[in-house]
Input
Amino acid sequence: MKHSFKYQGKFLTELGSTIINPEFAYHTYGEFNPEKNNIIWICHAYTANSDAADWWDSMVGEGKFYDPTHYFIVCVNYLGSCYGSTGPMSINPETGIPWYRSFPDITVRDMVKGLDLIRQHLGIEKIHTIIGGSIGGFQALEWSIINPSLFTHTVLIACSVKTNPWAIALNESQRMSIAADPTFEQDIPGGGTNGLKAARTIALLSYRNGKAYNLTQAESNEEVVTNFKASSYQRYQGEKLVKRFDAYTYFLLTKVLDSHNIARKRAGFAEVLKTIKAKTLVISITSDILFPPEEQAYMASLIPGAILKTIASDFGHDGFLIESELLSKLLSNFYQT
Output
């Protein structure tokens, strides 16, 4: 079920900006058990939304691994997104028009601050499992550091302690693509749409990899000289995204990704990670070129008692969304140990 929560007051961001009365969209599935210890909190990835049963339907739903007949499941559309929570396309109360490019820069920690507002609103004092992949993993990691006693289990998938230069470079190329669209600077609905299409195709190359493309986009006709399957696939994915997302939100979120670093304004990585109290499972994907397995191995080595597992997949970073059977087995074993 979809819900909305409006925070009454000033939301102070990590970088010193103020957002007045931010709103948050979130979904819940199932019911609390009498002990209120059956809560699964899912942190969604980049362009996803709070309806985890939709975008992660292989894992969430009746008969699936996270079954709402057994769990109370929460997923919040994070601050800065465009699926009901306050972000660049929301109305700025000081101007009466959408924020567009003037929306303040935010960080993963601000996203987590928003998640915690929903936790308090729901009266949740303990979370059985927090789980997330990619930027969802960034949120799960940060929250496990900020409030280590809140979680019994933490599951971190295809993420890292900080965003690497390769990922930052990819994000900069995407921002350049959006900014090259002259409509982006007009701050209008639909501004930057063509740039967003191009940016999405850049991102897809890092979400998958050469092997995945070669497996799924190969030509069966050796006479083809134009309009290749790979080309039409890229165009299709760009068109598909702009039907549900906007360039202003996308541009902002690439900057959020870039700024992720758990050591910022704290001690070093080892000192920060050793504060995590939850039983932790770290999962890498063998073919992930965005946040490669060595980054999860490093993270797991510094979290007390963390278990490191790897999913063998040809589908790169997106493997955590695709390899549900393998992921379910890892989670089942994790809960039983």
The chain has twelve helices and ten strands. The first helix runs from residue 52 to 55. The longest strand covers residues 23-29. The domain at 2-163+260-336 is CATH 3.40.50.1820 (Rossmann fold).
